Amino acid sequence: MTFRRSIPSMLDQVSCTCPPITLTIAVVVYLVEIFFWVWTVAYNFVPGGVYTREHTDYLIGFVMLSLLVGFHLMKHSIRTYSFATFVNTSMPSKAIRLFLGLIILVGASGFVYRIQPNEYGHQLGEHKQFSAMVWTYHFGYDNRGWPSLERTAKLIEDTGADVVGLLESDASKPFLGHNDLGMWLGERLKMYVDFGPATKDHTWGSLLLSKYPIVESQHLLLPSPEGELAPAVVATVNMSGHLVNFIVVHMGNDRDDLDRKLQAEQLADNLANSKHPVVFLGYVTSAPNSRDYKHLTTVGKAKDIDSTDLERWCEYIFYRKLIRLGYARISHASLSDTEIQMAKFRIPDSDDYVDNDKIVKKPDGIPEHVRFNSRFGEYKDGHSYLPDHLFHMSTPKYFVQA
Fold first, then answer.
1. Pick from 140, 139, 122: nearest CA to 131
2. N or C: which end of the chain has fewer CB within 10 A?
C-alpha cells in the first residue's frame, strides 16, 4: 500500500519542480544507466570494462537504491497527499461493456493471426540435399544504423538456405532496441528458431533458424577467462527423418589467445562426439591453418568446406559425415559488416560413401538443384564493393567426383 501511494506522490512532487532541470537530470541518469549496461557486455572494448564485466547487478542495485531514496524523501507527501473520493458512482451501461468487450476480442484476434503451425511442411526431397548459411548479423541494423529486418528476411529467402546461423544476434538489450530477432525472423520466414544463451548471460548471442524441426539443443557459454563471453548453440535438426547436428558459435576476440584456445578445445569435443552428421557454422577469429583451425579440424575430426580458400579470417564452415556440393561467399553490401558464407551438402545413403574432392568453378554440367541462386551474379575473384549482394572472393564453387 505504501508503494502504491508513493508513486502518485512522487509524480505530484515532480510536477512541482523546474521542468528543464528535472528533465535534464532524468535524461542524464537514464543515459548513464544505458551506457553502464553497454559496459557490462562490451567490457572488452571500453575503458574500465574490467570493473563492469557482467555486473548488471550493480545497475539493478543502483535503480533500487534510487527508488528507496525517492520513497524516503516522499514520506511527508505520503501522509499529506489527498486521494480523491468518488460518490454516487455506477457501473457503465450494458452497451458500453459490450462495446469494450468487442474491442478486446478484436485486439486478441491479432494473436490468433500470429499462431504458427507445429509443422511448416518443409521436406528434404529425393536428393537429400540441404544448404547452410552463416552470417555475423550485427543485431538487425545495417552499417548506417537503420533497422534491417525486412531486408534480411528477403536476403535469406533469396539464398534459399535451409539452416541459418546468425551471430551477434542478441538485440533484446535496451541499447539495441529490445528486439527479439529470432521471433520476428522465424515468423516472417516460417522457420524454427533456437536462440542462446539468454540475454542475462552477457553475450552477443547466437541464433539458429531452420526450415526443419529442432529436436534437441544446448546453449553453451564457452570458456572466456580474459575476453568477451563466447556463445554457442549446439542443436540437432530432424531433416525428414535424418538427424543432423549444427554448431553455431562466435568465438572470442583475436587478442584473447587463451580464450580462443580453450574455446577451440571445447568445440572440438562437441564436433568429435557428434553421433550424427554435423555442420559447424562459426566465427573462429583465426587464419586458415592456425592453431585453433587445426584443432577444430583434427581433434574435432571435421573437414573444411574449402581448404584452398586462404582468404578467410572470421567465418568458417566445417562438416563431417556429409557430401559437400557447393560453397559461396556473398558480399554484405553494407547490410552488416561481414559477408555471408554458404555451403550445400548431401546426406549420404550409408557410411560407405566418397566425398566430392574436385573443385568446379563453372556451373556448366552442375545439376540445377545444386546451383546457387543466380540472383547473386556469377563467379568472381576478389572483393565485391558494389551496393548489392553478389558472389565474390573466388566463389561460387562446386564439388564433384574426380
1. 122
2. N
- Contact between residue 324 and residue 344 where contact means Cβ atoms under 8 Å apart: yes
- Residues facing 250 on adjacent strands: 283
What's the rounded Cα separation, in Å, for the pair 335 and 267? 29
**Alpha helices in 16-148, H assignment, sequence order:** 19-41, 49-52, 56-73, 75-80, 94-113
> Grid coordinates representing 134?
552463416
Report which DSSP code applies to 323: E
Please give the Cα distance from 266 to 220 (Å, whole number).
10
CA-angle at 258, arms to 253 and 261, nearest 5°: 90
Strand partners, 243: 238
Assess whether 250 carries a catalytic annotation. Answer: yes
Summarize pLDDT for 228-250 with one digit per residue, the tens. 999 999 999 999 999 999 999 99
Q: Against a cut of 0.85, is the pTM above it?
A: yes
Q: Look at residue 344 and give its three-state secondary structure.
A: strand
Question: Nine-digit cell at 356?
Answer: 566430392
Catalytic residue among 138, 202, 250, 332: 250
What is the Cβ-side half-sphere exposure of residue 295, based on CA atoms within 13 angstroms? 17
Neighbours of 193 (CB within 10 A): 20
Q: Which residues contact 132 (CB under 8 A, 6 or more apart)?
A: 161, 162, 163, 164, 165, 246, 279, 281, 317, 342, 343, 344, 345
Q: H helices within 206-322, ranges in order?
A: 257-272, 291-294
- Which residue type sits at 323? I
Q: Choose among 252, 264, 213: nearest CA to 235.
A: 213
